[in-house]
Amino acid sequence: MSETPLIGDFSPAPDRGLSGARVGVVTFPGTLDDRDASRAVRLAGGTAVSLWHGDHDLQGVDAVIIPGGFSYGDYLRAGAISRFAPLMDQVVDAAKGGLPVLGICNGFQVLTEAHLLPGSMIKNNHLHFICRDQRLRVENAETAWTSEYAAGEEIVVPLKNQDGQYVADEKTLDELEGEGRVAFRYVGTNPNGSRRDIAGITNAAGNVVGLMPHPEHATEAGFGPDFSAAGPVDLRGGTDGLGVFISVLKKIVAGAK
Amino acid sequence: MPRIVVDVMPKPEILDPQGKAIAGALRRLGQTGFGEVRQGKRFELTVEGEVTEEILEQARHAAATLLSNPVIEDVTRVEVIVDATIGAGE
């Protein structure tokens, strides 16, 4: 698919030899960020495949992204109805078999409702919808979606949600901490009251990752945050989120060799 | 037609912002007789025909899987009610 830049100069992804990696992006009714997620996959050098929630076929993709939005209008609970969509049976089975799966924002909520990741998200503790550029620390750089970063590396990506407060019981939180399964942590002020400043977590195998902030919105100069973790950048030039997508593409290509 | 009522409440330790907002509104309205407000959900499942133990068991299963999330919510009631009481309070 050809890309049209809205502002600035569009640079197609450098040839990293990753175009053979096919990443599925699931669309539910009410999903918002599927096109951004697909674009992020292409900007990272991979091939994006659109998946429809009502299908029963993963089309042989090498990884799956469940993007952000308000699937089913957040009716009942965020992610609660999407979790029972026909395609989710395939996603859950494949995830248990090791397929890399990333849930962003509403996608993270879907993954917790599907019990692929522990805990749940409730309303932000200050009750407001929040939209801002958020600094995160990559705590676990060994997952399928974070290997392009160094452990402890900081990134800045947008955060935008209403139900972003991560909660779990103390035992679960202790397990996550003890097993190194906190993938991303908020740096600076905690934006929503999440337990232990948790922004994202991984399953034990490291193939399933969920996070509330949006790395796919920080992958293209001109459309990202005004800051990179390294400091100010040119107007909306932050691309700290790109590493998430390059991580999984490299892992797929390495596995195929 | 009989219905099965399922009540779901946020767990006591879970912040309930909607309940808090309602409590604040009550105070602003001068209704100061209440302390905390907790807001839950009530589902009414209509049953075609008789409510058998099997159907009730299905309702309990639905309450524990789709209708509630055990991480943050408790199912506080799964009960059959007769039509006359619907919407009129029990």
From TrEMBL, chain A:
CDD domains xref list: GATase1_FGAR_AT (cd01740)
Gene3D superfamilies the UniProt entry points to: 3.40.50.880
SMART domains documented for this protein: GATase_5
Main location: cytoplasm
Subcellular localization, as worded in the UniProt entry: Cytoplasm
A Pfam family this chain is assigned to: GATase_5
Pathway: Purine metabolism; IMP biosynthesis via de novo pathway; 5-amino-1-(5-phospho-D-ribosyl)imidazole from N(2)-formyl-N(1)-(5-phospho-D-ribosyl)glycinamide: step 1/2
Catalytic-site annotation from UniProt: C105, H214, E216
Keyword Protein biosynthesis: no
Residues passing through the membrane, by range: none
Annotated PROSITE patterns: GATASE_TYPE_1
InterPro entries: Class_I_gatase-like (IPR029062), PRibForGlyAmidine_synth_PurQ (IPR010075)
Record-listed E.C. numbers: 6.3.5.3, 3.5.1.2
Superkingdom assignment: Bacteria
Assigned keywords, A-Z: ATP-binding, Cytoplasm, Glutamine amidotransferase, Hydrolase, Ligase, Nucleotide-binding, Purine biosynthesis
Catalytic activity entry: N(2)-formyl-N(1)-(5-phospho-beta-D-ribosyl)glycinamide + L-glutamine + ATP + H2O = 2-formamido-N(1)-(5-O-phospho-beta-D-ribosyl)acetamidine + L-glutamate + ADP + phosphate + H(+); L-glutamine + H2O = L-glutamate + NH4(+)
Subunit structure, interactors included: Part of the FGAM synthase complex composed of 1 PurL, 1 PurQ and 2 PurS subunits.
NCBIfam families associated with the record: FGAM_synth_I, PRK03619.1
Function: Part of the phosphoribosylformylglycinamidine synthase complex involved in the purines biosynthetic pathway. Catalyzes the ATP-dependent conversion of formylglycinamide ribonucleotide (FGAR) and glutamine to yield formylglycinamidine ribonucleotide (FGAM) and glutamate. The FGAM synthase complex is composed of three subunits. PurQ produces an ammonia molecule by converting glutamine to glutamate. PurL transfers the ammonia molecule to FGAR to form FGAM in an ATP-dependent manner.
UniProt protein name: Phosphoribosylformylglycinamidine synthase subunit PurQ
Originating organism: Arthrobacter mangrovi
UniProtKB/TrEMBL annotation, chain B:
Signal peptide segment: none
Associated pathway: Purine metabolism; IMP biosynthesis via de novo pathway; 5-amino-1-(5-phospho-D-ribosyl)imidazole from N(2)-formyl-N(1)-(5-phospho-D-ribosyl)glycinamide: step 1/2
Keyword Endoplasmic reticulum belongs to the record: no
Tagged with keyword Acetylation: no
InterPro entries: PurS, PurS-like_sf
Homology family: Belongs to the PurS family.
Subunit structure: Part of the FGAM synthase complex composed of 1 PurL, 1 PurQ and 2 PurS subunits.
PANTHER family listed in its UniProt record: PHOSPHORIBOSYLFORMYLGLYCINAMIDINE SYNTHASE SUBUNIT PURS
Function: Part of the phosphoribosylformylglycinamidine synthase complex involved in the purines biosynthetic pathway. Catalyzes the ATP-dependent conversion of formylglycinamide ribonucleotide (FGAR) and glutamine to yield formylglycinamidine ribonucleotide (FGAM) and glutamate. The FGAM synthase complex is composed of three subunits. PurQ produces an ammonia molecule by converting glutamine to glutamate. PurL transfers the ammonia molecule to FGAR to form FGAM in an ATP-dependent manner.
Protein name per the record: Phosphoribosylformylglycinamidine synthase subunit PurS
Source organism per UniProt: Arthrobacter mangrovi
Highest classification ranks of the organism: Bacteria, Bacillati, Actinomycetota, Actinomycetes, Micrococcales
